[in-house]
Design a protein that fits this description.
- The structure is a homodimer.
- The first copy, chain A, is α/β, with parallel strands linked by helices.
- Chain A folds into 2 domains: about 250 residues, 3-Layer(aba) Sandwich (Rossmann fold); about 50 residues, no CATH class.
- Helix content of chain A is about 55%, strand content about 10%.
- The first copy, chain A, has 14 helices and 7 strands.
- A 7-stranded parallel β-sheet of chain A has the order 3-2-4-1-5-6-7, with helices on both faces.
- In chain A, helix 1 packs across helix 2.
- The two termini of chain A are about 35 Å apart.
- Chains A and B meet through helix 3, helix 7, helix 8, helix 9 and helix 12 of A and helix 3, helix 7, helix 8, helix 9 and helix 12 of B.
């Protein structure tokens, strides 16, 4: 496949095309993923998450600079499942993309729900695979917001950085709760603002509540100001320190295996669905079935169980 | 089934037990859902959503009062997929539950991700069915936050109310974008705050952008202050006006049929997954398969396609 070779040389247009093929669920998708699969597994994937206004983009911009200073290639996947009216990339991302437009060592890609047939998680997983095969050393998944899709997406990362800022309302802070349990590293950003130390103590307190661990084994909490570029390089270093720790302890491998398990299960589920649609002539029949359930003539589980039994008896399933 | 009869009389303990049976994915679940299915389809389901801090709970509290004034039974499902450390109901809900603890005409149930084997959407769908069969006139689904799960859940409603407040940051407002497209009614809450009229204009502008409609056919935008109880009764009336409009136009029926379709597809998917796990002896084999994909010895799609073909050849699928 010519496209695969081009991806492997890091060709920007080939990478963009490949990601589109995957997110639009084209027929080429399967062959493409399988063809590049042998060349993956080398990139570190860092997840950057946190509530809106926590300065995630600025942090990621700093990381891009640090990586380029070290001559490393970096890709950023900015995930925004809220599918704004604007459709696609938010303004900030467009500006960022322009800044790095001429640098083949930086690739920024926005993912919004709109227009992704297979869903944002599938599209993100696909983009990860492409960037990995294209030789990017580091891939950042940056999420806008902290909903369940974002959690699903961020869990594809090898390491998760949660960014918080002092002085946000309690309700906004509450949103981070689900994600606190899976963060590997905390950043109190805008640390020059009043209340940074208090926020750090609060995070520590919540982490202690949520675990049986002693304080020493809790995830590190770093203070920085991305805007003023203080503490950011130390944060950057500690991320890679921790990634190497994960690599040596086997944690990295086990996380990646969980990611593979989810992928296999996902492929099986979609193949089964396809098959079912054909075997039951779903397209033609579903309307009538819905009507009958709606009119309370048939009951949902009883109906499905019967259909499954029919298929099994006919040796179809 | 004795439980079914108790549910139908509105017995509080029976309802609570039934919801637990469903959310814990017990074996009784299927029979229970099927048994009460004939007695459903009567309740109006109202979805109340919006960003944190928009005053959703206060609005819902007002609705509870208005319903009780009219001697109608009302159930509230408070959905919070962020699964906070506290686990389960948030403090506000607990207080609300206590307030109405002795009134059998009000039932408030919190749904957090934690501990729901089948996921929050399934649990919510189950609770809807139970409340419907138990004779509640109105069921409110209230979401905390506006992520993708919340959208999935809120789409189970017959009508969706989106609550916004003036003066929130742009980034927070951006979060509502995905949900703006599916809202049937807008509320500018805290309308005594500066900027309420401007927010109303902004909403109108965004709605005009997102559609080909003329201004007259756009969803209504109401102003109210839930806290001061001004404009709330008018809002409440317009919700039921609109619901009756939906009923007469056939929109209500078609929305409910979409809900049924999703339910049927969901049941099929879970049955198929069960079958696959047995036929492929998944439990025993998945570890080895993951290992081989991880070591790049096999490719994910090629592998799944082969397995599917084996099953088809053996007349298993």
């Amino acid at each position: 496949m010519d496209l695969v070779n081009k991806i492997r040389t890091g060709n920007t247009r080939a990478i963009a095309k490949a990601i589109s093929l995957i997110e639009n669920e084209t027929r080429e998708k399967e062959e493409l993923i399988d063809s590049i699969h042998p060349f993956t597994g080398n990139a570190f994937v860092i997840g950057v998450t946190g509530p809106p206004g926590a300065g995630k983009s600025t942090i990621v911009d700093r990381f891009i600079q640090f990586e380029r200073d070290r001559n490393k290639k970096i890709a950023v996947i900015a995930v925004d499942p809220s599918s704004p009216f604007s459709g696609g990339a938010i303004l900030g991302d467009r500006l960022r993309m322009q800044t790095h437009a001429t640098d083949p060592g930086v690739f920024i890609r926005s993912m919004a729900s709109r227009g992704h047939l297979g869903g944002i998680s599938t599209a993100t997983a696909g983009a990860l695979t492409i960037f990995d095969a294209a030789g990017f050393d580091t891939i950042i998944i940056e999420t806008i917001g902290v909903g369940q899709t974002e959690v699903e997406v961020i869990e594809m990362a090898d390491l998760i950085l949660l960014t918080l800022v002092p002085g946000m309302g309690d309700e906004i802070q509450a949103m981070k709760a689900g994600i606190m349990e899976i963060a590997d590293l905390f950043l109190v950003n805008k640390c020059d603002i009043d209340g940074a130390d208090r926020l750090k103590s609060e995070i520590e307190y919540m982490l202690m509540l949520g675990s049986e661990q002693n304080k020493a084994s809790l995830p590190p909490i770093k203070l920085a100001s991305a805007k003023n570029n203080t503490g950011t390089e130390e944060l950057y270093s500690s991320i890679f320190e921790r990634l190497n720790l994960f690599k040596n302890s086997g944690l990295l491998a086990s996380r990646r295996k969980i990611r593979i398990q989810k992928e296999i299960e996902h492929i099986f589920a979609s193949k089964l669905k396809e098959l079912l649609y054909i075997k039951l002539n779903m397209e033609e029949n579903i309307g009538l079935w819905i009507e009958r359930v709606y009119n309370r003539e048939i009951r949902p589980y009883n109906f499905v169980n019967k259909k499954m039994m029919e298929l099994t008896k006919e040796n179809v399933l």
